[in-house]
Design brief:
This protein is an alpha/beta fold and 221 residues long. It has seven helices and ten strands. The strands form two sheets. Strands 6-7-8-3-9-10 form a six-stranded mixed sheet. The protein has a four-stranded antiparallel sheet with strand order 2-1-4-5, with helices on one face. The longest helix has 18 residues.
């Protein structure tokens, strides 16, 4: 589902060069739940952003769902990302002035889908994460765990084949974190959704199919 071959990422200024990723080779088969761990600054989020076509590598090739991605700024790539990928972030990234169902609908606005169908799809996504009764609430009326579940509903509303989650339990207590992992595991097992999760939590990582570790931009395990 995801193939990274010899991926490097280098940030350069006039005076310094920083290698964020160093020759990463990683294949994620369809239906796998993969976790990525490592200390802060080791390149985890950079790697996830490259997988999600949000950032461009300095070298190497990337394939997503059998497609080799070479032009990251094209309209076609943006459409591909919207159709194939769902994103979950540590800080939720909900729009405070929109209610829950409007937040969940956002990815569908970039597709040719009627308002009625968008509503139905968003309602179904919210039901799947146990928030059918919170459609009209606003983000400031929700707990951290509820916000993250809204973020998951937004990520899955368009039926993506891949979900990329960056520290999805990082701002949650252990109980709420367990609930989020249970939802992701259910999506993985029942829908065969491929999931790649960055985490600092060894306990959460142990609940996934496979764990890889990064250190100073290199894969060490």
């Amino acid at each position: 589902m995801i193939k990274l071959n010899n991926i490097t990422k280098v940030y350069r200024t006039k005076t310094i060069e920083t290698t964020a990723l160093n020759e990463i080779d990683l294949h994620v088969p369809k239906g796998e739940f993969l976790s990525i761990m490592g200390p802060s600054g080791c390149g985890k989020s950079t790697l996830l952003n490259i997988m999600g076509l949000l950032d461009e590598p300095s070298g190497g090739t990337i394939q997503v769902d059998g497609q080799t991605i070479s032009k990251y700024t094209s309209k076609a790539t943006a459409q591909f990302r919207n159709k194939k990928l769902g994103f979950i972030f540590q800080s939720f990234h909900l729009i405070p002035d929109l209610n829950v169902i409007d937040n969940v609908e956002l990815p569908l606005l970039y597709r040719k889908i009627s308002k009625k169908d968008r509503r139905e799809m968003a309602s179904k996504a919210l039901e799947s994460v146990g928030l059918a009764n919170r459609k009209q609430h606003f983000p400031n009326q929700l707990s951290g765990g509820q916000k993250q579940r809204v973020a998951i509903a937004r990520a899955i509303v368009g039926n993506p084949t891949i979900i990329l989650a960056d520290e999805p339990t990082g701002n949650l207590d252990s109980v709420m974190g367990d609930e989020v992992i249970e939802i992701l595991t259910k999506l993985n097992k029942e829908n065969n959704t491929t999931i790649v999760m960055v985490t600092h939590d060894e306990r959460m990582a142990m609940k996934t199919d496979r764990l890889i570790r990064l250190y100073d931009g290199s894969q060490i395990a």
